[in-house]
Amino acid sequence: MRYKKIIRGRYKLVFNYIGVLTMGIAVFLLLPLLVLPFYPQDISYLNVFLLPSLVFLVLGFLLWKVTNTAQEQVSLSLKEGGIIVLISWLVAIIASAIPFMLAGKLNFTQAVFEATSGWTTTGLSVVDEAQTSHIFLMWRSIMQFFGGAGLIVVMLSSIIHPYGFGLYNAEGRSDQLLPHVKRSAKLIMLIYSGYTIAGVILYYIVGMGLFDAVNHSIAALSTGGFSTRPASIGHWDNLGIEMVTWILMLLGTTNFATHFALLKGKFKTFIKNGEVRLLTFLVAVFVPIVSYFSLTELYSSLPDLMRRSIFEVITAISTTGFSLDTFTNWNAFGVLSIVILMLIGGGTGSTAGGIKLYRIYLMYKSLVWEFKSYFLPQNAVQKNYIWRGENKLYIKPEYIRETANYIYLYLITYAVGVLIYLAHGYDLMESMFEFASSLGTVGLSVGITAADAPASILWLETVGMLLGRLEFLVIFFAVAKMVKDVKYLATE
């Protein structure tokens, strides 16, 4: 009986957090209304944001009030944090989908898909940007801004008390920039917001309009990829705009702890970072081979060829999803190269998706250490480490095992997803590309993802995007804990 009382008390704490987060989501729903003074023709959409905002504000307040107890300052475990993250993200997605449905823009499946793509910073879309009003274009970017930073990080940096490292960790933030969790969250938001503002200014300087600059700066830095134009960045055909986008995408795919080291002037530490080295290596290798083996068939001019290659390689490895053109005329080598980059993904603790550079780098180093061990004396003691953020991370065997298990689970999920595409009649290369983009939260497409796509495909991609953003183990552990606790509480 005493243990049941403890469990109930812990869930009171969990739902108290969820209540606070729900109120925060209600506030986010009001932010698109800021464009109304500039685009008064969108005033007809006022209620489609006001009504859901009011409903979720009331629901969040009631949940917070009912569960508000003295236990509020107890630290959360990782599994409890996982439950909060999972439920809060689902609430955010449903709440964000409602304006699309109330306005008659999308049906339920499409609206949930679009909201999931926004919050997970994927960028796959079923809307026609040319026919979409400014308020909804801004709403998509707002979702990507907060989804890139992380719903939990945003709340920790503002209103939630600092006792929840399990909550911070559950959303994929394993690196604390400062000893204090709340200060780490605030610093992340400061860096993230500062880069976004700088991106807006740079875009405006090189010729992009202010509204487009705000949306594209958010989408590039969050590695989200939602554009205000059907042709994405290719709409402008402007090298300056493309170069600003390169910079923002690379910044977005870099771990925030690594940013912190760079901003403190620790350039040697920055260069030693394993993820930075691997990212540099992959871009340096894939740009020339994609150019030579794939794009020489499409471009006769070397500058045009390199410009397209650099952009598409960076957008794939950073999991941003902006593009200059379609991939339908690429050969198999080029398409498979982009698939590999989308599967690898960006930095751990960044806004990017994919398997993550850290895991790939760790498995590479593990292989190197294994080979070296054969040439060392039998009793030799090795202290293997890699640089992460601004610190050495000494690698324990369980780190390598956990990483290998994650990669195995990721690739199994990817294979199952590809098989489902094949069952719908799509060819192998299209299926591999589209699900790598969904699961890696990239946003590039070969044309499968559209408003007229089968509902089953849109739901498959929705699940893939959510798994890719929150990472498998957090979701699985959260669901397993909830099922176990419910079963225990149901027993006499």
UniProtKB/TrEMBL annotation:
A GO cellular-component term linked to this record: plasma membrane
Pfam family, one: TrkH
InterPro entries: Cat_transpt
Compartment(s) where it occurs, according to its Swiss-Prot or TrEMBL record: Cell membrane
Mode of membrane association: Multi-pass membrane protein
Transmembrane segments annotated in the record for this chain: 14-39, 45-64, 84-103, 142-166, 187-206, 243-263, 275-295, 332-355, 406-426, 458-480
Keywords: Cell membrane, Ion transport, Membrane, Transmembrane, Transmembrane helix, Transport
Biological process according to GO: metal ion transport
UniProt GO MF annotations: monoatomic cation transmembrane transporter activity
UniProt similarity note: Belongs to the TrkH potassium transport family.
Name of the featured protein: Trk system potassium uptake protein TrkH
Organism name: Halanaerobacter jeridensis
